Amino acid sequence: MAFKKSAVPFSGTAEQEERLRAVIAEHKDDPGALMPILQKAQEIYGYLPIEVQTMIADAMEIPLEKVYGVVTFYAQFSINPKGQYKISVCLGTACYVKGSGDIFNKLQEKLGIGSGEITPDGKFSLDACRCIGACGLAPVLTVNEDVYGRLTVDDVDKILEKYN
Amino acid sequence: MDKIRNLDELNAIKSKAAEVVNVRVEGKDNGVKDVLVCGGTGCTSSGSMKIIEKLEEEIKLQGLEGKVNIIKTGCFGLCALGPIMIVYPEGTFYSKTELAHIPEIVESHLKNGIPVKKYLYAETVDGDTIKSLNDTSFYAHQHRVALRNCGLISPEHIEEYIARDGYQALNKVLTSMSQDDVIDVLLKSGLRGRGGAGFPTGRKWQFAKASQNEQKYVCCNADEGDPGAFMDRSVLEGDPHSVIEAMAIAGYAIGANQGYIYVRAEYPIAVERLEIAIKQAEEAGMLGDNIFGTGFSFRLGLRLGAGAFVCGEETALMTSIEGNRGEPRCRPPFPAVKGLFAKPTILNNVETYANVCQIILKGPEWFASMGTEKSKGTKVFALGGKIHNTGLVEVPMGTTLRTVIEDIGGGIPNGKKFKAAQTGGPSGGCIPPQHLDIPIDYDNLISIGSMMGSGGLIVMDEDNCMVDIAKFFLEFTVDESCGKCTPCRIGTKRMYEILTKITEGKATMEDLDKLEKLCYYIKDNALCGLGQTAPNPVLSTLRYFRDEYVAHVKDKRCPAGVCKSLLAYKIDPALCKGCSLCAKKCPVGAISGEIKSPFKIDTNKCIKCGVCASNCKFGAISKS
Amino acid sequence: MVNIKINGRDYSVPEGSTILEAARLAGIKIPTLCYLKDINAIGACRICVVEVKGARSLVASCVYPVNEGMEIITNSPKVIESRKTTLELIISNHKRECLSCVRSGSCELQELCYEYGIDENKFLGENPAVDIDDSAAHMVRDNSKCILCRRCVAACAVTQGIGVIGANERGFATQIASAFDMNLADTACVSCGQCITACPTGALHEKDDTDKVMDAIADPEKIVVVQPAPAVRASLGEAFGYPVGTNVEGKMIAALRRLGFDKVFDTNFSADLTIMEEAHEFLGRVQNGGTLPMITSCSPGWIRYCENYFPEFIPNLSTCKSPQQMFGAIVKTYYAQKLGKNPEDIVSVSVMPCTAKKYEINREDQSAAGIPDVDITITTRELARLIKKEGIMFNDLPDEQPDSPLGEGTGAAVIFGATGGVMEAALRTAVWKLTGENNDSPIEFKEVRGVEGIKEAEYDVAGKKVRVAVASGLANAKALLKRIKAGEASYDFIEIMACPGGCVNGGGQIIQPASVRNFTDIRADRAKVLYGIDESKTLRRSHENPDVQALYKEFLGEPNSHKAHEILHTSYKAQDLYR
Known about the structure:
Number of helices of chain C: 19
Strand content of chain B: 5-15%
CATH architecture of the largest domain in chain B: 3-Layer(aba) Sandwich
CATH topology of the largest domain in chain B: Rossmann fold
Shape of chain B: globular
CATH architecture of the largest domain in chain C: 3-Layer(aba) Sandwich
Largest interface: A-B, 34 and 50 residues
Helix content of chain B: 40-55%
Distance between the termini of chain C: 45 Å
CATH class of the largest domain in chain B: Alpha Beta
Largest sheet of chain C: 5 strands, mixed
Strand content of chain C: 5-15%
Strand order of the largest sheet of chain B: 9-10-8-7-11
Structural class of chain C: alpha/beta
CATH topology of the largest domain in chain C: Rossmann fold
CATH class of the largest domain in chain C: Alpha Beta
Helix content of chain C: 25-40%
Oligomer: heterotrimer
Number of domains of chain C: 3
Structural class of chain B: alpha/beta
Number of strands of chain C: 18
Largest sheet of chain B: 5 strands, mixed
């Protein structure tokens, strides 16, 4: 099997580790604490590399595989770092019927990466997402916190330019 | 806020807060203007937070401090018109508000009392008169029960909820009703679960109450995952206390002291408001120990989903709260007997809870007077797709689809023809024009091959290919299948592959037959409700739009012109002026010709992107 | 009891039964794939579906409880057609090399596909590309044959409390693998092989070393000796049609001889030797204030578990090599000397009920003569395959006896193969010793027998209290060790076996399908064979073994002597692997 360890070297700091340990300690007596701990860990580190998952598994005295199994089940957990600019294109029904698929394809083509991937310079990462609830603005994409709505394929270039 | 110890203290807060809220509710003019800005996800996405900043700035600038309250509310429903702003006591409705509009609105309307008509929602302006929002066609047909406070109160202030009879129901239940009384009221009301399957809520509670155990749980399903559905989110964003209060009531009824709300992490605003609301409810003593001095204790925890549609299934939701992969479990045992952490548990969805307090206060008869024989009350729908008024609507059960789409939704844009309405998300089906006049309720929708689901309602017009739509839903199902049981894990994948073959014109009639058989097989064999209903989008389109499937298979043609592999772009030589624009725009150099004589498309090179057609000024390029 | 109808006939079955169990009582076998009693009741594969009157859809009989008045149909066309489609879907995502697959003939999926007469090519489509993981010393994982029944996951996580494999990703992409898809060899996998015996298909299988054996036998320069472990004789017959619980000791020896081994010895010999060393080590620890409780070290799966998960207990481990390794060590030293040969000229082969033995032979500090004590080890299953391949008509073989001088074993040795056996064997000799070498001291210690996961007993031996515990299955071992760590329990002597029920249920034994395992306790049936042999023996205490006595006299001197330590003892160290 290909070891799925992230190619980007782990650069966690002692301060981050301290925060994570505090989170785990806080949830110690909480039944079913793994999910909230993983969510906080991803907040702290931005993603969940093997080093972080190992810390969690050891502290909670559960197998690393159990942690990894949960992480890979849920779409929002990532074992790879995300780009400086996280682009998400809504492929929910409302957006899809209004052409968000084409916008997504255009972005793949422009950035040269596929869904869930990051550009080699670490600048952009691209994801397809489920409905973000902004159906009134369909089709919609987000770049980090910014929301772009009522898009056409031609808007893609303009949006990317903003972040270059 | 100090702890509220009894009804008197609750009422004292209520009457004080009512003065503030009545500016909006009753249009009472006390010299202060309330500006309600929608802080729901839709409007926030279109910039409503910046509108609030600008308003604050401008009000300061124009010296109106103390005379204008800015209130960030939940969703008004008309998401397509965002950012939305309503000014009370008049109730004038500004839509698609831009930052540049603000100074003028502040000066003319807030300072001088003259609404700026050009920025108002056009439907509310009729010559010189300005209509109330409630008289517009979008709102006139609606009946707001679950959404009664959405867009009217500030969800971040418990006082405003209390002003609207908040926590009265909890007080009533704790001080004057037995557990069985509460369950009785729910049974009599006929309330059925709003999350999809429509199981009678009172019965669920009855089962859980009957299970003997020291520890029981009350859960709220706020993992609203159907694409295009956002009813629950709006309730949580606009009126979180209505859910919290109802969960406490449920806790009392079944004998539970702990509840969990499982909410999608994709709903940050809802999460934030819930956190604030839970904190305020704890401070006010509406959650915690010894509520209203009755000895009843109830605590609420928030658990966030992490992007798995299947967690909307009740057993999967519980496995997820337990910290596992959100895979469904076999039933029996049912959650009412052995649910979360193997304890008796009830799980209801947000909208179901949002009805509970009203039923307690107004009585089961009131609730049962709305709706149809077997489906009582109202239902919130998230209207989307090819429709004018995209947004959130709440109508009595039994309203026809036609009313929702044509009257409330304002019909289909660009003069296109209605083709189908999709309800129930990936578990539902497509409803064709011939069923537009069927009253919407649980049983009718099932009888026509769809289901209520949580309330997503996506409208499709003649430009939508039904095979493509079915494929879209199957892709969603394949993506979101948990992978535990064979029928869903492999079966839906094989269905998707057959659908892909069909849309590519590579399928045979045998494949179509195989597809249909797989549908029925998965319905019978999948482990959970989501798996069992996964074939519905295919089955319903096969039922009503079989000719479209056959066209793809036999004629290798996509009647709606959507399926790219089956398309061919053509230049009509009679219309082509030979301007060469299309050739310049073609990304793959598939178009050639000589200036001033008709151009031609090389179909082998053409990738069917459609750029040529959208750029042709003479309408000479068409697809077939 | 509740009254139900199955296929129109009335039955009365115990309350709380599942439909599967109720049907079995009615003489109806409902097919299963994912269900494994006690550890994997997840209703995932859907092969066991039946119709229940009033139910909206078909139900999974493996988890669905019966209730009064229930009407069940197990054989309607809808049920049969559904099962057939389920098989066709599974097969559409299964690598079909059934002709030569190691599990051909014992594959549960293959059998069902045959029974239901499926169309193998009904659904063609994408199959996820998967790599084969052959990194571990003992086994191969080939996910292209995995049907995601998760029986292996349950064996690893529930039975063994380890969980180095599990379900990753979701939907069609779901794979059973280690965290981050790392190689099994990089994980804390203990090589117990319980996942293999749980697997219904050929997705998990032992590494096959039979070619190495036959190459060695074919080499005229080499003297090839073989030792079959006690538990092998209790399971090997199952591969040749004998019922579970048949003793095929004599035929096993005969078959090994016909395969061409120069000498056919018996691990029973070194089991007795182990007791000599271990019982004396225990007495020494008691008398000299050594680390107690002392924990047995025969099970390499347990040893690796201890090193991976409970390194703080390493001082408690007996330093004795396992019987397999002691045997190899004696072959390469004493026996080589006796033959006047270089140890390099001898190939030491073992037949084991165990996959962890494949890992054990490569451990450090297991080379008494400077070269590995054991060169090749094959499992019971590999031996069965080899016997078939070589055309030996097993069922027609005469009963034969092992060779001398390393073939003799007492009753104490043969019970090593069942949980509690090592403890009982050690007690037989220790109590004899403590009671002044009293030949009337007790032989049977029945408190430590049986398939329960954790057994405890206290013996009063010559005025001394000896508190013992026996655990089999690593989840049980974990529970026991945790109690000891927490100070909730304390013992003098503990036996731990990695596999539940001990070696009779080892990861290298003949695989019994779930349809057998769910309804009979193969651990108990096989253990009965060993206790039967024990009872039939005149010599039932290890120190009575004449070959062992001769070994000490001629070569080792005393038990725990310096020489014995050099040859028969080993060392352990904590391992840092992904747990």
